[in-house]
Specification:
about 15% strand; single chain; Butyryl-CoA Dehydrogenase, subunit A, domain 3; Butyryl-Coa Dehydrogenase, subunit A, domain 1; Butyryl-CoA Dehydrogenase, subunit A, domain 2; alpha+beta; three-stranded mixed beta sheet; four-stranded antiparallel beta sheet
Length: about 400
């Protein structure tokens, strides 16, 4: 077990600077353009692939090669300080990789995660497909089905997924589907849909308030057939888990029903999502601070007025508090796991802080904060999604309350 420390090691400091330099010199100069275009920023992703930032090796080292758990949050904060939409375009594949790592075998991880990223000269994309038009926060109500064709050793997937990052344009789709509707969340499994599989198509592409450089769309599955080996974790493990869940359904007093594939992925990624929100919030604090030093009103820089200075002091304090929660959760995820849903705590706090801080930054800039000539309005639009995706603010509160009380809170 690594000792928890706020002192970053030399490797982490180098990675932090490396990603920050990329965000400052490559991402920020084109952020407004890609936000306006609402298109996937392939040129930036290719540059990230060329330097190794968008790669299986980087993700493997950041997620599994670091006993402190802090390397990935550090990198994400710096990249999203540059721009959240482009940041998600670069790291959106990481959710698919996490879904494979959380639910698959080591052999499946080694086979499929590299295919999610491709090579520096030919980068690919991955997508994690959970939410549906009628099942967002209520993951247990998924209608997408997976039926096993024993004669052909194939799974047949049918349904529609909604709000999917990289949906339809990804090379590898990781799809969570129901194999036993009666068991609800306990009757679900994750499947790999390999590149070029017939029956998978993109539905509508969403035009969003923020993170507009990140591609978000529906994924339609129409009799999609995948080989048996594409069931993450394998059929034997699935059959055992389903048997336990069915027994528990007959006898509610029994425990050990197994986890939901989607939830295990989200729990693993929530500190990383929190770090993204912190990057946005930090950008807003820094920009508002510099503006307040230069902008004059009533004969002096506006930061010399307590109304502005105290606002900035609160903004900086909230960002630091959120970062500490993210770092603690990231460390716990690698060293002994959570006790009171610390991953959800970190994501809840960071999302709230990003929305509040960016709104305050607009207030400090006044009318200038409300126009697209200045970046704070874009950061505010980008920040709002962190109260919504990968578990809404209210879902995080529910998870935390259940962990604290040990009781089923509805």
């Amino acid at each position: 077990m690594a000792e928890f420390s706020l002192q970053l090691n030399e490797d982490q400091l180098q990675i932090q600077k490396w990603v920050h330099d990329f965000a400052e010199t490559v991402v920020r100069p084109v952020a407004a353009e890609w936000d306006e275009r609402e298109e996937f920023p392939w040129p930036v992703v290719r540059e990230a692939a060329q330097i190794g930032l968008y790669s299986f090796d980087f993700m493997a080292n950041a997620m599994m090669g670091d006993s402190t758990g802090l390397t990935l949050p550090l990198a994400l904060e710096e990249l999203f300080w540059g721009d959240a939409g482009i940041g998600l375009a670069i790291f959106g594949t990481g959710l698919a990789a996490a879904g494979i790592a959380s639910n698959g075998t080591p052999e499946q991880l080694l086979e499929w995660v590299p295919q999610c990223y491709g090579t520096p000269d030919d980068p690919k994309l991955g997508a994690f497909c959970v939410s549906e038009p009628d099942a967002g926060s209520d993951v247990s109500s998924l209608r997408t089905t997976a039926v096993y064709d024993e004669a052909k050793d194939e799974w047949v997937l049918n349904g529609t997924k909604a709000w999917i990052t990289n949906g339809g344009i990804a090379d590898v789709h990781v799809v969570v589907a129901s194999v036993d509707r009666e068991l609800r969340g306990r009757g679900q499994a994750s499947f790999i849909v390999p590149p070029g599989t017939k029956g998978l198509s993109q539905g509508q592409k969403y035009s969003k308030l923020g993170i507009r450089a990140s591609h978000t769309a529906e994924v339609v599955l129409d009799d999609v057939r995948v080989p048996g080996r594409c069931l993450l974790g394998g059929k034997e493990r699935l059959d055992e888990r389903l048997a336990r869940a069915r027994e528990a359904l007959k006898n509610p007093q029994k425990s050990g029903t197994g986890g939901q594939p989607a939830m295990s992925t989200f729990e693993a990624t929530r500190p990383a999502v929190g770090a993204q929100a912190i990057g946005i919030a930090r950008a807003a604090v820094e920009y508002a601070l510099e503006y307040a030093k230069e902008r004059k009103a009533f004969g002096k820089p506006i930061i010399q007025h307590q109304g502005i200075a105290f606002m900035l002091a609160d903004m900086a304090t909230e960002v630091d508090a959120a970062r500490l929660l993210v770092w603690r959760a990231a460390w716990l995820a690698r060293n002994g796991s959570y006790k009171w849903a610390e991953g959800s705590m970190s994501k809840l706090k960071a999302g709230r802080v990003a929305v509040w801080v960016t709104e305050r930054a607009i207030q400090i800039l006044g009318g200038y904060g409300y126009v697209k000539e200045y970046p704070v309005e874009r950061w505010h639009r980008d920040a709002k999604i962190y109260d919504i995706f990968e578990g809404t603010e209210q879902i995080q509160q529910l998870v935390i309350a259940r962990a604290m009380s040990g009781m089923r809170i509805e």
